[in-house]
Amino acid sequence: MSTPEQREGVRLARAEDLPAVCEIVNFYIRTSTVNFRTSPQLPEEWEQDWAAHRERYPWYVALVGGEVAGIAYAAPWKARNAYDWTTETTVYVSDRHRGRGLGSALYERLLKTLEAQGYRSAMAVVSLPNEGSVALHEAFGFESVGRIHAAGHKLGGWHDIGFWQRRFVLDEDAPGPITPLADLSTEAP
Ligand SMILES: CC(C)(COP(=O)(O)OP(=O)(O)OC[C@H]1O[C@@H](n2cnc3c(N)ncnc32)[C@H](O)[C@@H]1OP(=O)(O)O)[C@@H](O)C(=O)NCCC(=O)NCCS
């Protein structure tokens, strides 16, 4: 018996979700400084990123009435191997669905999975001001760890960015390898 298709809540992203994700993020690229890109992306760029990273980095979407209404995903913080236990996390909720708990539901799943995989830190880069994003990150235990003044110029002005860090494990032990998503023994994904 086939299971009914999930229409509400959070699940792992699939290739067919990415055009809707692209549209959600392009809205913010066009209209705001929360994303420092100055031109919209094509769905293919999202598909390439997802395909390149999906085994090691979780991507979740939030569904409302069967439609993709938000995305939270993890990505490499930097390519050099000593950074392997640090990841960058990003979250976008469609303008029509903000303020209804979707950002929190997405981050809840994303951070639990990253912790289960063995990541030590999640980093968020937030262009400032962004009261909603700062509130969300701090609610999930991210701490402010620095700021770059006038880091980018967009929509006629200079904008600062802030760095927020969430640490998962506070011990000094050498870390084990990151667990690929397919090998997680819990139901986290
Ligand atoms: C930031 C964002 C992801 C938050 O998602 P959301 O679904 O709107 O947030 P939620 O409804 O889950 O709220 C989470 C918490 O953040 C706080 N919050 C959300 N929006 C806020 C706002 N505009 N001002 C102040 N606090 C806000 C709420 O107080 C809430 O905490 P609570 O549950 O204790 O009330 C969403 O607003 C968004 O996509 N914004 C535009 C894109 C963006 O800035 N992304 C982040 C890039 S770093």
Automatic annotation (TrEMBL):
Pfam family, one: Acetyltransf_1
GO MF annotation list: acyltransferase activity, transferring groups other than amino-acyl groups
Record's keyword annotation contains Secreted: no
Key words of the record: Acyltransferase, Transferase
InterPro entries cross-referenced by the UniProt entry: Acyl_CoA_acyltransferase, GNAT_dom
Position of the signal peptide: none
Domain N-acetyltransferase, first and last residues per copy: 8-162
PANTHER family noted in UniProt: N-ACETYLTRANSFERASE (PTHR43072), UPF0039 PROTEIN C11D3.02C (PTHR43072:SF23)
Protein name (Swiss-Prot/TrEMBL): Pat
Organismal lineage: Bacteria, Bacillati, Actinomycetota, Actinomycetes, Kitasatosporales
